[in-house]
Write a sequence for this structure.
């Protein structure tokens, strides 16, 4: 179980890195293609990537505590 | 202390000097004196102490010089003081020899000896006499004297104890003598009895020898004297005889009218007789002298014997004296007889001379008248003539007238002569009487003395005999008394002994009975005990068999549990142990009928069986990593689990410092449930080997820390469970084994 934490961090970082890199790339592409080499798409893209990675990371870390609620329909016949 | 004294003395000196010092410059002088003051005061103290010590020593020496007892005391108490005294005073005078009691002894011994003189032990008296002499000499022979006297005392005491009534008076001085002897001669030992007896015998023998020598001396002297005296007496008798014969013959020759030839023979015989007589008289005189010398010698010997004062010799001395006396008397009587004979002979010779003279005268006259007539005129009657005859007759007549005249004259003169002769005779008689009286007196005195001595001797003997009889009577009475007493004692002792015998016999009988009874009882007891033991032994053996079986089983169980224990140890640092399956199987096999063991064996967690468990050391090592992690995610729980919270939690972990190890309290309070505290408690308990407590504490973690530590906790739980079961099993095996080994 101790390793899980480390593993999570690994995944998280790796994922984040990938996402940031991807965002960066997409941003660069968009910056180059559509937005006349402005920096804001790069930042935007890396930001998007970072955010996505952060969110994933958080989700990963939260995962054990996540409660998945189910709505249970109680038929009237059972309650009587 | 010396310094204190000095200081005190200093201050005192200063005060004193300053107080009484010169008024002009007291301080200066005090100052100048202080340097010397201390010195002089110290010097004063030293001088005073030296004086005191010297005075004490000198006084002791002087007093010791005066009183030797004090000196002895001091020498005894203080070591080496005797050397000092020796140097100062010379050696101590030896203690004065205690002579007084020893001086007392001779007196008492002499009294003892006196007593013994009267008793029937003259030999002992001789012994005492002999003992007296060495005593008088001094201590050289204290031992023999002491022993002798001691023995003598013993003898006397024995005799005295036998005759207590009569001689009780003598006991006291003797006892006193003995006591004084014992007191003042404690160091002297007694000679053995044999030696004393030998000495006594020696002295007896010496005395006997002396006695015999004395008696032999006396006898010899007596014999010789008697011989000589007899010789003298014989000589005197012979002389007497010779004188008598000579006188007789002379008278015969005077009166007889023998013819001339016979006359010549007669005269010759007479001459022979005369010579004989003179010779015998001389002989007799010499013999008398010799006899007298011998008698003197004998007297000397007798006196010497008397000086020796041996009682046994006294009768012989007395006899010798009597003999001497009788010899002297005989000698004197014979001498007087000879003297009378000699005087008679002198008378006769005078008479014969006168007769011869007359005859010669007559012859001359005859010759003058008738010259041719020969001497032998009796036979000449025929030859003579008438004238001759007439002249002869005339001559004869004239002669007769002359004779008558002479006769008348003679008669007248006779009276005067007789008177003078009587007077002379009286004188001579007186002298002779005096001599005779003196000799008779001497003889009588001697006789009386001898008789007295004889009487004394007789009385002494009588007294002795009487005393002996008395003593014998006393002894007889005493022996009777003793016999009675002894009889009574014997009775008493016999009865006592019988009593004692009976009582001891009874005791011994009861003892014997008791012993036999005891023996029987003990035998019965022993038999019962033996039987019981036999039974017990059989039971024991049976139970022992069972126990052995049990023990074997227990041993097997224990072995298998040990094997299990051993497998637990096979855990490497980070790897689990071998799976415990095999060992548990072995246990299950070894204790097939033991339910407890079976239950325990099945209680092991399956993980440990299949995978094995981690060792405590590895868990401890892992804990630290867990701890770090748990610290980092301490803030994360169900409610807080965003990444920001993670960041905060990391920050907290970085910034918060807690004790690495903290001893957990006995009871956990609410604030102790903080992650960090729990972790430090768990670390402490782990470090102190308490995995269980650490697991408990880790179990209290909440949230993410708990999730993180879950693995570790599980492992810890496994290990603890396994260990618990194994320890239970081993305890059980030990208990079973112990129980079996303790079986009788």
């Amino acid at each position: 179980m101790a390793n899980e934490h480390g593993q999570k961090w690994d995944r998280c970082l790796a994922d984040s890195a990938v996402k940031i890199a991807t965002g960066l790339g997409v941003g660069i592409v968009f910056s180059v293609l559509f937005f006349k080499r402005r920096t804001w798409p790069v930042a935007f893209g890396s930001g998007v990537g970072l955010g996505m990675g952060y969110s994933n990371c958080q989700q990963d870390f939260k995962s054990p505590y996540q409660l998945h609620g189910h709505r249970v329909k109680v038929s009237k016949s059972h309650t009587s | 202390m010396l310094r204190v004294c000095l200081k005190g003395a200093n201050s005192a000196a200063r005060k004193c000097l300053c107080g009484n010092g010169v008024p002009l410059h007291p301080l200066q002088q005090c100052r100048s004196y202080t340097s010397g003051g201390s010195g002089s005061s110290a010097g004063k103290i030293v001088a005073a102490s030296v004086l005191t010590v010297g005075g004490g020593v000198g006084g002791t020496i002087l007093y010791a010089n005066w009183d030797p007892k004090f000196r002895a005391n001091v020498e005894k108490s203080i070591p080496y003081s005797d050397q000092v005294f020796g140097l100062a005073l010379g050696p101590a005078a030896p203690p004065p020899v205690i002579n007084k009691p020893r001086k007392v002894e001779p007196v008492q011994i002499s009294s003892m000896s006196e007593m013994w003189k009267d008793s029937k032990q003259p030999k002992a008296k001789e012994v005492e006499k002999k003992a007296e002499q060495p005593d008088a000499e001094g201590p050289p022979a204290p031992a023999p004297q002491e022993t002798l006297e001691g023995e003598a005392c013993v003898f006397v005491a024995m005799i005295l104890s036998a005759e207590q009534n009569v001689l009780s008076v003598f006991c006291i001085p003797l006892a006193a003598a003995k006591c004084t002897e014992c007191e003042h001669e404690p160091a002297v030992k007694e000679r053995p009895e044999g030696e004393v007896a030998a000495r006594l015998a020696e002295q007896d023998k010496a005395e006997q020898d002396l006695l015999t020598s004395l008696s032999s001396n006396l006898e010899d002297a007596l014999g010789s004297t008697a011989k000589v005296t007899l010789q003298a007496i014989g000589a005197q008798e012979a002389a007497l005889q010779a004188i008598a014969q000579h006188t007789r013959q002379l008278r015969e020759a005077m009166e007889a009218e023998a013819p001339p030839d016979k006359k010549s023979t007669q005269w010759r015989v007479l001459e022979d007789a005369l010579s004989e007589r003179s010779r015998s008289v001389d002989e007799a005189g010499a013999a008398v002298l010799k006899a007298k010398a011998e008698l003197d010698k004998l007297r000397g010997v007798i006196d010497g014997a008397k000086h020796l004062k041996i009682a046994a010799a006294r009768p012989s001395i007395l006899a010798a004296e009597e003999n001497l006396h009788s010899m002297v008397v005989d000698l004197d009587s014979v001498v007087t007889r000879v003297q009378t004979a000699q005087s008679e002979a002198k008378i006769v010779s005078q008479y014969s001379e006168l007769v011869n003279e007359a005859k010669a005268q007559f012859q001359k006259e005859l010759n003058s008248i008738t010259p041719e007539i020969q001497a032998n005129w009796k036979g000449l009657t025929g030859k003579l003539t008438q004238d001759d005859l007439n002249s002869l007759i005339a001559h004869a007549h004239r002669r007769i007238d002359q004779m008558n005249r002479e006769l008348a004259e003679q008669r007248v003169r006779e009276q005067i002569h007789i008177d003078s002769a009587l007077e002379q005779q009286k004188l001579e008689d007186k002298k002779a009487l005096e001599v005779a009286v003196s000799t008779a007196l001497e003889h009588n005195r001697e006789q009386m003395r001898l008789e007295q001595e004889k009487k004394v001797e007789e009385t002494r003997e009588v007294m002795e005999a009487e005393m002996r009889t008395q003593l014998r009577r006393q002894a007889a009475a005493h022996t009777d008394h003793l016999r009675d007493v002894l009889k009574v004692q014997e009775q008493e002792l016999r009865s006592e002994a019988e009593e004692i015998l009976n009582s001891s016999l009874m005791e011994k009988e009861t003892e014997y009975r008791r012993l036999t009874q005891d023996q029987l009882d003990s035998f019965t007891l022993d038999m019962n005990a033996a039987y019981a033991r036999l039974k017990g032994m059989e039971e024991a053996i049976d139970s022992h068999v069972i126990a052995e079986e049990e023990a074997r089983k227990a041993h097997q169980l224990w072995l298998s549990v040990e094997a299990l224990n051993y497998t637990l140890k096979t855990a490497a640092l980070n790897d689990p142990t071998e799976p415990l399956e095999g060992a548990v199987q072995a246990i299950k096999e070894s204790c097939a009928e033991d339910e407890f063991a079976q239950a325990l064996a099945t209680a092991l967690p399956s993980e440990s069986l299949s995978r094995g468990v981690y060792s405590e050391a590895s868990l401890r090592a892992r804990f630290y990593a867990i701890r770090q992690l748990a610290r980092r995610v301490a803030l994360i729980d169900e409610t807080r689990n965003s990444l920001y919270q993670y960041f905060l939690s990391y920050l907290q972990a970085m910034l918060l410092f807690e004790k690495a190890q903290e001893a957990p309290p006995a009871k956990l309070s609410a604030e102790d449930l903080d992650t960090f505290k729990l972790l430090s408690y768990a670390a402490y308990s782990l470090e102190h080997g308490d995995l269980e407590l650490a697991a408990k504490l880790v179990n209290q973690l909440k949230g993410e820390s708990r999730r993180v530590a879950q693995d570790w906790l599980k492992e810890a739980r496994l290990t603890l469970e396994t260990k618990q079961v194994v320890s239970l099993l081993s305890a059980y095996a030990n208990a079973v084994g112990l129980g079996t080994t303790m079986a009788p």
